[in-house]
Amino acid sequence: MHPTRRNLPQLLGEARRWFDEALLAALDEADATPVSPTQLQLFTVLDEQGTTVSELARRMGVTRQTAHQAVHGLMRSGLLEQVPDPASARQRLIRRTPEGERAHSRAESLLEALEERLADRLGREAVDALRAALEEPWGPPPSVAVPTQR
């Protein structure tokens, strides 16, 4: 019997969890401000100039309420702040505080170190090829017909 072949989204999800778990463990070891996996994901989709909660929720693929809870937890930790949106009097932008910028910079350095560890395990060529494939523009999601059952 052949083992079930996992699909690409499953493999990409497992790869993402590998990085997230290693990053969270490294931050914990460094006595950094504790963050949840959802809060960590929020940091990765936040624009430098700030992002609305609705846009954060869309980018994360979560409800607005979930994004809102993550934002407020990070605001209580002093990593994020809310500021008026210069483009709309009705909206507010979420952005990093100076402490949030330091935390983001620390996380970026840790991710670079993790990528090097991965290159040690899989080989530099494999990691560079993976990066190159993921950086290519994929275009909009295609329309694919659902296969009929036999």
From TrEMBL:
SUPFAM superfamilies: Winged helix' DNA-binding domain. InterPro entries: ArsR-like_HTH (IPR011991), HTH_MarR-typ (IPR000835), MarR/SlyA-like (IPR039422), WH-like_DNA-bd_sf (IPR036388), WH_DNA-bd_sf (IPR036390). Residues 5-139 form the HTH marR-type domain. Signal peptide: none annotated. This is MarR family winged helix-turn-helix transcriptional regulator.
